[in-house]
Design brief:
Keywords: Flavoprotein, FMN, Oxidoreductase. This protein has 187 residues and is α/β, with parallel strands linked by helices. The chain is 42% helix and 20% strand. Strand 7 (146-147) and strand 8 (150-151) form a beta hairpin.
């Protein structure tokens, strides 16, 4: 399976800290190809309605990686009670069916618990519209769960481990179902 981890903000460090932990966990538990994409390190063009294949450089690299992924983990900070504009731009660059047959796990970082429903109310509808199979649960990480760019809350570590494990398990199960359905046809 092809796993892409998308750190969905062009600023900050907490999302990347959690994404690095998730990458370490996945690397230790699976032999699948894992690619970490940090939007802080990319120069992404604004969406102007073109096909994603008509872009160049980092924009084409990121969109192609997402289109070829079987599993996508999206991590993002919450800004102004919403997802970051840089993450929304990525979605705008992709076609409507970009996440068809892909399993998506997610986590959000925030300064307070007041915004714990942002992934549910803002990100999941976008992913559903783009035909993703989103994991029912996500991990919400507050600022108090970090200290000096490390996660200090054992419950968050446990929940990130569970997210990684259940998302990979769901994707493998889904791939098996698709293969079983495809094998029913003679051609």
């Amino acid at each position: 399976m092809n796993i892409v981890l998308l750190s969905g903000s062009s600023v900050g460090s907490k999302t990347r800290t959690a994404m690095d932990y998730l990458q370490q966990q996945l690397t230790a538990t699976t032999n699948d190809h894992i690619e970490l994409i940090d939007l802080r390190e990319k120069s992404i063009e604004f969406s102007d309605g073109r096909n994603y294949l008509d872009y160049h450089g980092d924009t084409l690299e990121v969109t192609t990686a997402l289109m070829q992924a079987d599993i996508i983990f999206i991590g993002f900070p919450i800004f102004q009670a919403s997802i970051p504009g840089s993450l929304k731009n990525i979605f705008d660059l992709l076609p409507v069916n970009a996440f068809k047959d892909k399993v998506v796990g997610m986590f959000a970082t925030a300064g307070s618990a007041k915004h714990y429903l942002i992934p549910e109310l803002q990100l999941k509808p976008i992913l559903d519209y783009m035909k993703a199979h989103t994991m029912q649960t996500y991990v919400f990480i507050e600022e108090r769960d970090f200290h000096q760019q490390t996660i200090v809350n054992d419950d968050i570590i446990f929940r990130l481990n569970a997210l990684a494990q259940s998302t990979v398990r769901m994707a493998k199960t889904y791939q098996q179902i698709l293969q079983d359905e495809e094998s029913q046809y003679d051609f």
